[in-house]
């Protein structure tokens, strides 16, 4: 019997993981990538002696990466190692409150009590609630397809369904967080987790308060060698399994005959396959690669609200700041106004919350001696035609002003080099429609059910993985999308 073949469009993290899983199942796998490198958003670059991880910078749920090596009969540590963080993130508030998010839950609850006066019991109760939501939703919303009958017939799923009233789907994250904490700083702290999937805590369902459990219970980590080591190690594993990567090879079209995907066209050449898996944003998959078949488009899905995007300044800084760590957050004074600017005004608030990642804190050679590499990011709306040049110039000055005030020093003369990533370049480099980082937003209680499935309902042999489809964006969920696809493919 001839070996089955699989073609994957895009070498993002989900595409690589899908390639590994299908290779283990015996498929001959080829991956076509438009860029000259693998990883999609999870890439890296250097500028004048400073190395930067270009995209995702927080690493959680490392077991999903390790699983891929074990599935292939390999030892994860032969390819990929990492270290757990004692402090997940440093938080800086406008009132000069400084909060360390310790990985140890008890220690963090005590830190919260000392810094804000909020009883440690409130934080502990909050994490118990977050854990309960995870226990209920994990089997239904994360690890399996919502669009497959088999999912709803398992005992774990049935148990979860009987407890769905406990997932807090009819309050917003902000409303729920207000019910747990009296201190506004703690409400803001937990509201921030909506940004982990590009949503608005004033609209997103409180079910998303599951996210703190994923970070606190499972921990946060730093991959030895930086975030791009995740990509590099998985590409190495895939190649060891016989997967073939074609770089600088954008796919022109998914070939469909009789409502069946039969392969792809690259540079005019047909590459036939038994199954086709798109790791490209589902919007571009349909609008660009399936443009000949508009009658097969799931228009109700393609018209959904997109997630937020990001504006990132990659700064080489000619000094070291001892008060900063790997992950740092500088909060805005008015969080609701900031999200209103992003979601309703489609603009950037004058006092944005700033996320600052400095990998040289753990990997010293990411910056010259005595210097630091600053990945400086704010949340911004998806691109709908705003005047980005003006918005970027204004945001840059506001960010510099904010960080200088918090650090007690004008950082302007310390910025020795700079690169910028904005919604326009995110779209052009990663084929993410409107530069949205997580596909569609999760700003309604039905969002999880409205995400595109991991298999086409109208085109046989066509599957989807990555952050724009179920179960969602971010490294852990992208890896789970690969698992779901591999279980669906015969």
Task: Draw up the topology in text.
Blueprint (H helix, E strand, L loop, with lengths): L4 E5 L3 H12 L3 E5 L11 E4 L2 E4 L5 E2 L2 H9 L10 E3 L2 E6 L5 E5 L2 H12 L3 H23 L12 H7 L11 H8 L3 H8 L19 H8 L1 E4 L4 H13 L3 E3 L4 E6 L4 E6 L2 E4 L2 E4 L3 H8 L9 H4 L6 E9 L9 E4 L4 H9 L10 E4 L14 E9 L7 H20 L7 E7 L1 H8 L16 H4 L11 E3 L10 H14 L2
Parallel strand pairs: 1-2, 1-14, 2-10, 7-16, 14-20
Antiparallel strand pairs: 3-4, 5-9, 6-9, 7-8, 11-12, 12-13, 15-18, 15-19, 16-17, 17-18
Total DSSP helices: 16
CATH homolog superfamily of the domain at 5-42 and 226-304 and 442-488: FAD/NAD(P)-binding domain
CATH architecture of the domain at 5-42 and 226-304 and 442-488: 3-Layer(bba) Sandwich
* CATH fold assignment of the domain at 5-42 and 226-304 and 442-488: FAD/NAD(P)-binding domain
Q: Approximately how much beta-strand content do the residues carry?
A: 15-25%
CATH top level of the domain at 5-42 and 226-304 and 442-488 is: Alpha Beta
Distance between the termini: 15 Å
What is the number of strand segments?
A: 20
Helix/strand-derived class? alpha/beta
**Uncertain parts:** none
The side-by-side strand order for the widest beta sheet comes to 8-7-16-17-18-15-19
Rounded to an integer in angstroms, the radius of gyration calculated over CA atoms is 22 Å
Level of helix content? 25-40%
* Shape verdict: globular
Main sheet summary: 7 strands, mixed
Mean pLDDT: 93
């Amino acid at each position: 019997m001839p070996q089955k073949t699989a073609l994957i469009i895009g070498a993002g993290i989900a595409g690589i993981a899908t390639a590994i899983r299908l290779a283990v199942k015996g498929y001959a796998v080829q991956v076509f990538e438009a860029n000259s490198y693998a990883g999609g958003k999870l890439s890296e670059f250097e500028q004048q002696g400073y190395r930067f991880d270009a995209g995702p910078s927080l690493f959680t749920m490392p077991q999903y990466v390790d699983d891929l090596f074990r599935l292939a009969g390999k030892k994860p540590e032969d390819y990929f190692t990492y270290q757990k963080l004692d402090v997940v993130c440093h938080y800086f508030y406008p009132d000069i409150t400084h909060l360390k998010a310790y990985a140890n839950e008890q220690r963090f609850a005590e830190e919260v009590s000392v810094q804000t006066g909020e009883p440690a019991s409130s934080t502990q109760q909050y994490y118990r609630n977050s854990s309960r939501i995870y226990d209920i939703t994990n089997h239904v919303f994360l690890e399996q397809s919502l669009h497959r009958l088999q999912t709803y017939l398992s005992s774990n799923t049935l148990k979860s369904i009987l407890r769905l009233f406990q997932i807090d789907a009819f309050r917003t994250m902000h409303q729920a967080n207000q019910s747990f904490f009296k201190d506004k700083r703690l409400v803001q702290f937990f509201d921030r987790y909506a940004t982990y999937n590009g949503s608005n805590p004033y609209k997103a369902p409180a079910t998303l308060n599951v996210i703190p459990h994923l970070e606190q219970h499972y921990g946060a980590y730093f991959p030895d060698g930086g975030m791009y080591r995740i990509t590099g190690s998985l590409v190495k594993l895939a190649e060891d399994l016989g997967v073939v990567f074609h770089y600088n090879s954008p796919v022109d079209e998914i070939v469909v005959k009789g409502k069946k995907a039969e392969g792809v066209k690259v540079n005019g050449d047909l590459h036939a396959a038994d199954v086709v898996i798109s790791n490209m944003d589902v919007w571009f998959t349909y609008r660009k690669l399936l443009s000949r078949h508009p009658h097969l488009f799931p228009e109700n899905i393609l018209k959904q609200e997109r997630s937020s995007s990001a504006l990132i300044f990659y700064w080489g800084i000619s000094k070291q700041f001892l008060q900063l760590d790997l992950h740092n957050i500088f909060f805005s004074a008015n969080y609701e106004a900031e999200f209103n600017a992003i979601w309703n005004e489609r603009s950037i608030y004058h006092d944005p919350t700033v996320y600052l990642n400095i990998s040289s804190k753990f990997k010293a050679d990411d910056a010259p001696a005595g210097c630091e590499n600053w990945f400086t990011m704010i949340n911004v709306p998806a691109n709908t035609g705003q005047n980005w040049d003006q918005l970027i110039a204004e945001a840059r000055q506001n960010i510099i002003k904010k960080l200088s005030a918090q650090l007690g020093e004008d950082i302007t003369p310390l910025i020795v080099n700079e690169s910028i990533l904005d919604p326009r370049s995110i779209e052009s480099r990663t084929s993410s429609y409107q530069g949205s980082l997580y596909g569609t937003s999760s700003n309604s209680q039905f969002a999880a059910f409205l995400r595109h499935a991991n298999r086409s309902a109208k085109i046989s042999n066509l599957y989807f993985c990555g952050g724009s489809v179920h179960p969602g964006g971010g490294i852990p969920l992208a890896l789970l999308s690969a698992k779901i696809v591999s279980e669906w493919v015969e």
